[in-house]
Amino acid sequence: MAIEFIFRVVYIVSFFFLLKLIWSLIRGIWVVFFRPAKNLKEYGTWAIVTGCTDGLGKAIAFELASKGLNIVLVGRNPEKLKATSFEIHRRYKFVETKDVVIDFLKSSGTEISKLIEEGIEGLDVGILINVAGLNYPTAGYFHEVDEEVMHSLLKVNIDSVTWMTKSVLPIMIRKRKGAIVNLGAGSSAVIPSSPLFTLYASTKCYMDQLSRSLYVEYKKYGIDVQVQVPAYCITRMTLRIAAMKEPSLFIPTAEDFARASVRMIGYEARCSPYWAHALQWGVSQYIPDTFLDANRLAEGIRRRSLRNPENHIN
Question: Are 101 and 81 in contact (CB under 8 A)?
Fold first, then answer.
């Protein structure tokens, strides 16, 4: 009788586990491929994008422009901002742009707020996309990370997101609508650790918790806050860090990711917009942390050795 009871319990638990797995799969397919995107113009006619002169930020700025939104381009290089504005105007003739020069490395929080508030004065800003971010120049143990690199990661990955968000929230609260999207990383949510990229992953964990808490805090004001969790995409950063040059099934181009990213705006507090990244995330939930930790450590050491073949650590 005892054995029969145990088998019944195992059967029931397995049945509900299977149902949950099937439901997660069905819901994931609906969300990624079939759920309609929101009308982003309902938030406002202008969107702000940081880190918009290259990589994912630039691709997202163009994708938003394709939806008819005017774009406030935020970056530290005036010439690159002008070039990006010119490209947007050439492709989308009825879209307006405005360049706001902010060097997140050198500007204090107060200066960031002042510059962005002056830059968006009088504009119907409905969306903020925080994309600007830095990573290590190469894999390295925590004690090896240069002090300047540490300072830069903290300034750009934490301070810029914090102060940009704080600057636009009062506008959105008055309007009682708005959307804020922070671009996180798989290292903050998908995998349990990111050895040899520890500080980078930790800054993205800050962004993850900031976003998810603000989602709860400001939902009553009609403000949708979201952190998006991509895995690898083809950008200059991944080319430098992981030597990835060509897109593949699990490594999309910046443009492919941007299309998926914009479709997700206004929904869950945390998501992985690109379907293959979401699949990787789902599978990772069933892999033991010890295995993932060992795999990430080995990969980090491999990348470190490629850049510093003579370096070793005991």
Answer: yes
CB of 211 closer than 8 Å to CB of 261 = no
Q: What is the pTM of this model?
A: 0.89
pLDDT of 197 above 80:
yes
Angle between helices 78-91 and 55-66 (to 10 degrees): 30
Query: At 74, phi and psi to the nearest 5?
Result: -115, 125
**Degrees to nearest 5, angle at CA 79 with 171 and 57:** 50
pLDDT for 235: 82
| Percent of the chain with pLDDT strictly greater than 90 | 74
Which residues pair with residue 46 across a beta bridge? 70, 125
Helix, strand, coil: what percent of the chain each, to 5?
55, 10, 30
CB 201 within 8 A of CB 194: yes
If one compares 163 and 10, the residue with the highest pLDDT of the two is 163
Closest CA to 59 of 297, 285, 230, 310: 230
Distance of CA 33 to the CA centre of its chain: 19
Residue 314 has pLDDT above 50, yes or no: no
Structure letter (DSSP) for residue 37:
P
- Residue type at 291? F
Closest C-alpha to 73, from 38, 135, 107, 123 = 123
Return the SS3 of 250.
Answer: coil
Q: Which helix (H) or strand (E) holds 226?
A: strand 223-228
Q: Which residues are catalytic?
A: 200
In the predicted model, is pLDDT for residue 3 greater than 80?
A: no
Mean pLDDT of 224-230: 97
